Amino acid sequence: xxxxxxxxxxxxGIPAALWLGSKSSALKSMVASADTPxxxxxxxxxxxYSAEKKGFITSEKVIKxxxxxxxxxxxxxxxxxRKKGTERAFTGQYWHNEEKGLYRCAGCGNDLFTSDTKFxxxxxxxxxxxxxxxxxxxxxxxxxxxxxxxxxxxxRCDGHLGHVFNDGPKPTGLRYxxxxxxxxxxxxx
Length: 189
Known about the structure:
Layout: H1 4-33, E1 45-50, E2 55-60, H2 66-72, H3 75-82, E3 101-105, E4 111-114, E5 118-119, E6 127-128, E7 137-142, E8 149-154, E9 160-165, E10 175-178, E11 183-187
Antiparallel strand pairs: 1-2, 3-4, 3-11, 5-6, 6-10, 7-8, 8-9, 9-10
């Protein structure tokens, strides 16, 4: 038999239970949508330089869900390209590559650098004195690790590539210090 006090306690708890239930469904909704692209607009068209076409082309931005990136990238590529990680110096596949060819984004295939602009910076990462075209990359201020740097991302998929510094060779004086794991090398025929 329910006492009056128990009945009132249950009655008083109903609004709280309803409130918690609404918060729970809102939380579930937030979790469910956490893996969806932030931008629900149609893909944005961008202008890129294509080494194959030897000129500029129009392309769409590559927008994928986090889970899709995890499926198509290796764990190392995912950590660097999507989470802005850095591979250890002198461990990457291309830091000492001297073959002639083209370096593309490992995330989307965007043309980024040519071997003609690659140089040995002594840092243990592949370094270039200029990108294939300034339109193919984006740069951002990066103040992580208590220092000021300039981050370099792929303009097509927003993948993190590395950083650019002002200690490179002539003619630009720049050093685009890239992670090998962010790149795919296509050897010239």
